[in-house]
Amino acid sequence: MTRSRQLHLGAFMRPVSLHTGAWRFPGAFPDANFNISHLKRFVQTLERACFDAFFMADHLAVLNMPPAALRRSHTVTSFEPLTLLAALSSVTERIGLIATSSTTFDEPYHVARRFASLDHLSGGRAGWNLVTTSNPDAALNFGLEAHVEHGERYHRAREFYDVVTGLWDSWADDAFVRDVESGVFVDTERMHVLGHKGEHLSVRGPLNIARPVQGWPVVVQAGSSEAGRQIAAETADAVFTAPPSLAEGQRFYADVKSRVERAGRDPEHLKILPGAFVVVGDSVDEAREKRALLDTFVHYDSGIASLSIALGHDVSQLDPDSLLPEIPESNASKSSRQRVVDWARRDQLTIRQLAQRIGGYSGLEMVGTPATIADQMEQWLVERGSDGFNVMFPYLPGGLDDFADKVVPELQRRGIFRRAYEGTTLRDHLGLPRPENRFFARRSGD
Amino acid sequence: MTRSRQLHLGAFMRPVSLHTGAWRFPGAFPDANFNISHLKRFVQTLERACFDAFFMADHLAVLNMPPAALRRSHTVTSFEPLTLLAALSSVTERIGLIATSSTTFDEPYHVARRFASLDHLSGGRAGWNLVTTSNPDAALNFGLEAHVEHGERYHRAREFYDVVTGLWDSWADDAFVRDVESGVFVDTERMHVLGHKGEHLSVRGPLNIARPVQGWPVVVQAGSSEAGRQIAAETADAVFTAPPSLAEGQRFYADVKSRVERAGRDPEHLKILPGAFVVVGDSVDEAREKRALLDTFVHYDSGIASLSIALGHDVSQLDPDSLLPEIPESNASKSSRQRVVDWARRDQLTIRQLAQRIGGYSGLEMVGTPATIADQMEQWLVERGSDGFNVMFPYLPGGLDDFADKVVPELQRRGIFRRAYEGTTLRDHLGLPRPENRFFARRSGD
Which residues of chain A have a CB within 8 Å of the CB of B207? Predict the structure, then answer.
């Protein structure tokens, strides 16, 4: 290979920002999450910046929060992902469009069909973020009193995936001949009836839409559990992760890539894309001040609860304006506890400030100048912590515009991110092969 | 009222033409049904012609036909309606967008959410064609060995409707305050938890999207059975019907409107819109020739089967090029049998021609000049056979362009169809009120 490894960038966009204070930042659009004109502008900006994809997370319920937190949540409602991305497909040409859809609360015929439809509408830009939905509130919206147990959900998910991909292969790529003269519209010998009868699902087929432009839309997964990693290694095209540090990212990367290889696949054909919360400033101090200002918009009550969980120790009775005292050992994950303590010490944060930071966003962050952010991203790429990132913006439109206008050009200068799209499909952008149809070989001459 | 009653026009668009020979007509797009660029052009033409709505019918299976018929079917696959209409919402501003969705094979939380999403994406232009799905092939794609029985389907449909509309009312119209200063994004006292537990469905709520722009998207139904008429009278905003003649249309119209009144509703608030297959010519003869040419593209095998069913008598053994002999009485519906016989006599059709006509399209048709078609439409309107029509085009784009460019101006000259949209929502176009939220009264001053 003559050029360096390339970063892949998704924009993780539901809500438009994960930070609970985003909507109150000076100059931010308070309704950014639910204004289609804004969202069209955002996706067009991302496309100009050559992002691989726009990525819609999703929930199937209003999250169960105390009223005091719920009333402050700008993420309480949102557009439904498939309809939103279909609307955005009409105002974009190249950027990938990834929607979340659940294997626990939907039917494989519907899911296969909708993603095939989005793929055709967008000219091959659809991606399916396959989730099993761990939120117990969702079950109550779908007729289930108790939530489906984790192992059971994963077994169904695996079977669901097999059915969906089988349905996508219902028609050979060349089945639709549309021969006006002879009157033959479709070659029915190039149609496959799936006839699936499994443990959880029974689906006859064929799918009532042509094979997707990409063969199969890109399949994204996010599970970090043992079962989640294994199903991802066997089936996913991309994995969304949330490692809090490069070291943890490298461990995850090595583990999943070796699982991919053991499953008989090329490790390059699964892209690992951690979420990264990025705040851009003209100086590192300015970026940290932006983050600090953003955190002041987080409600103390919700922040202090998150902080107590992260520390494994109730700190809600302490003086919010004092510094964090020594915290005894606890059941909390050691590394995440240590990270919180390190933050407090490094930035000399009061308990209030620390609570608001944790309540705002507590995962992997890159807060600095375009150069320091590019340094971090390059390090992750070169040192095999990831194949790119799902970027999360602190507020909209400023945080997104800063990334597109300042960080992307820096990545491009370093030769680690494209200056123009080279292909037309999401698979092209991610460097993934187009799957063969499992039921129909290509005809010679194709 | 100072102006005459107004026609309402929907374009019934899945497949783009119902006529099985449509894709082979000279100048027609063979891929009209599955080419998003074409479909964007069609919907924009309909919007310029001020149509109330673009209406997507749907199936949840590849229809079970003999291979000889299936391979000639241009309707074998299609886009999924909600994703297609969302994509079309981005290239239109006013026209309504009605999608079909099943109460038997989907979940009310999903259905409520997707139509609410389409309504917000389109600025209040969504409609839900509520169907119970009578096609037994669909059941096999959703894990059911036997099809759900008719009465059972209607009971579930009625409960499903109650849940969907209840979910649409999850939030008061003014719930989202987004007060940046105080940090209150949503007034949680203006949120309603449905907590539905019924015979078929158990759904907690609230819906995770704001109340639709229209309050509730427009609800369309198509059932003509006793149960179908009654549920429509109680709940629908519009009814799609298929009466073969004005007399039958008038009977249906009177029956359903009186049911609406008995249900305590204003009969003007339910619009009855029969399907009408329209072929436009510069003369009546030219229009009939177009129809006859179109019918030649219908495969004889599928046509003769349809003809035998319509007559209640197997005519497949007769000489295809002879005229229709006397046909004995049978179990076939008398009126539809008589209509077929009348066609054969009036136009001196051979058995082949008659079979191809029936196989092409056998419902209500308007074949003539812009003036004779406008005459027919006006008569139906004035004599209370309908409140308008769901127009079906014989082939695309010609059949659609002819209607938009020639018939619509004639209807406008007569003062029975709008020259410009007066409102912005589909409810505005149809003259329907915006439903109050059943859980939240408007605040004084609203």
Answer: 62, 77
Rg over CA atoms, chain B:
23
For residue B446, is it within any domain?
no
Q: Are residues B162 and B256 in the same domain?
A: yes
Query: Is the same domain home to B289 and B230?
Result: no
State the CATH number of the domain containing residue B38: 3.20.20.30
In a shared domain, residues A144 and A264:
yes
C-beta atoms of B83 and A118 within 8 A: yes
Nearest CA in chain B to A111: B80
B196 belongs to an annotated ligand binding site = no
How would you write the pLDDT of chain A (446 residues) with one tens digit per residue?
457 899 999 999 877 888 989 999 999 999 999 999 999 999 999 999 999 999 999 999 998 777 888 899 898 899 999 999 999 999 999 999 999 999 999 999 999 999 999 999 999 999 999 998 878 889 999 987 777 787 888 899 999 999 999 999 999 999 999 999 999 999 999 999 999 999 999 999 999 999 999 999 999 998 788 888 998 999 999 999 989 899 999 999 999 999 999 999 999 999 999 999 999 999 999 999 999 999 999 988 878 888 888 888 888 899 999 999 988 877 667 777 888 888 899 889 999 999 999 888 888 999 999 999 999 999 999 999 999 999 999 999 999 999 999 999 999 999 999 999 999 999 999 999 999 999 998 765 54
> In chain B, which residue's Cα lies nearest the Cα of A23?
B180
Q: What is the pLDDT of residues B394-433, one digit of tens each?
A: 999 999 999 999 999 999 999 999 999 999 999 999 999 9
- Same-domain status, A249 and A198: yes
Could you give the number of structural domains in chain A?
Answer: 2
Hey, is the C-beta of A105 within 8 angstroms of any chain B C-beta? yes
Contacts of B72 in chain A (CB under 8 A): 183-185
Q: How far apart are CA B196 and CA B266, in angstroms?
A: 28
**Cβ within 8 Å of residue B333, ≥6 positions away:** none
Question: Residues of B with CB below 8 A from A64's CB?
Answer: none
CB contact under 8 A, A141 and B89: no
Contact state of A109 with B60 under an 8 Å Cβ cutoff: yes
A 154-173 near B (Cβ less than 8 A): 171
Q: What percent of chain B has pLDDT over 90?
A: 75
Selected for mutation to probe chain A from B75, B121, B208 (highest A CB count within 10 Å) is B208
Helix (H, G, I), strand (E, B) or coil at B425: coil
Can you give the C-alpha Rg of chain A in angstroms?
Answer: 23
Which two tokens mark B418?
């709008």
User: Do residue A354 and residue A374 come from a single domain?
Assistant: no
Q: Cβ of A83 under 8 Å from any chain B Cβ?
A: yes
Yes or no, beta carbons of A141 and B203 under 8 Å apart: yes
Residue A38: name the closest of A70, A6, A64, A16 by CA.
A16
Same-domain status, B181 and B95: yes
Q: Is B299 on the interface with A (CB under 8 A)?
A: yes
> Which token pair is A257?
């890539």
Residues A172 and A66 in one domain: yes
For residue B111, is it within any domain? yes
Contacts of A297 in chain B (CB under 8 A): 183
Token digits for A183? 């009157």
What is the C-alpha to C-alpha distance for residues A126 and A56, in angstroms, rounded to an integer?
11
Cβ of B34 under 8 Å from any chain A Cβ?
yes
Final residue before a domain boundary, out of A362, A391, A421: A362
Handedness of CA A371, A402, A95, A86 (dihedral sign): positive
Is residue A140 situated within a structural domain? yes
Question: Is residue A180 domain-resident?
Answer: yes
Distance, CA of B276 to CA of B258 (rounded, Å): 23
Containing domain of residue A321, as a range?
A: 286-362
Indicate whether B274 and B286 sit together in one domain.
no
* Cα gap B398→B26, rounded to integer Å: 10
